[in-house]
Every structure is written in C-alpha cells, then in structure tokens.
Specification:
mainly alpha; single chain; Four Helix Bundle (Hemerythrin (Met), subunit A)
Amino acid sequence: MSEYHTSVTSEHNVGAAVKARPGGVMLTVYRWALLVFLAAGVVQIFLAGLGAFKLLHGAGDPALDPHRMLGFAMAGAAIIILILTLIARAGARAIVGAVLLVLMTAFLQSLLAGLADDHVIFGALHATDGLLILAIPAYLYVWTGRRAA
C-alpha cells in the first residue's frame, strides 16, 4: 500500500468519525440548555426564599409571584430540553430524564403548590420536588458529557 493511499484513507476515517459523533452541534446546544436550566433553578430557589421571608413580613401573596413566573418559564424550558434531547439523539436515558423533567416541572410542582394551601406537607414536597428537578439536568449534563467524550 502506498503512503498516499494510507494518508487518504486515514483522513477519510477521521472525517467519518467527526460526522458520526452522536448529536454533534445539537448535543452541545442541548448541554448548554441543561446548564441554563440549572442556573434558572438556582435563581428559583433564591426567589422562593425571598418570597417566603417577604410573606413573614406581611407582603402578601404577590411576594411569590416572581417564583411562580420563573417556575412556569422553567416548565417551558423543560419542554424545549425534551425537544433538544430528541434532536440531539442524546439516548434513551436522556429522553426518560427529559420526560420526567417536563412532568415534574409542568404538572407535579403546580399540583403540590396548590395542595400546600390545605396541607403544609405538600409544601415540603414541593420544595423536595424542586431539588429533584435540579438533580435531573445535572445528571444528564454529566452523563452526556461522558458519553460524548
């Protein structure tokens, strides 16, 4: 085999490996979306604490409005993450995690918050669910990073 043929074959294999990388650019976009979601989650916890202490000082129900609005925005972001998961071909584990993220942010959080008006245990579960919501994108970010490497 000639040196030229070996060189051309090697370049072809490298190009094929780059093109065959699962997800490519969309996987990077997906991972950035997970990071943005995590950052929004940190802000969400801050807003929950701020609203809770405003309530203690008589601010009334509007004290939690920023927390509520960001929560609804995060539910929308979870749907976007699910779509990005499918486009990036991040794998079955990522799809299951994204579906759980949508269910927990869009439905379970609102349900628990509404039930907390009558029973405080649901308020505690609302907070616990919020932490679990943040665990999902953190796990998916680390897992997809290892998978892409």
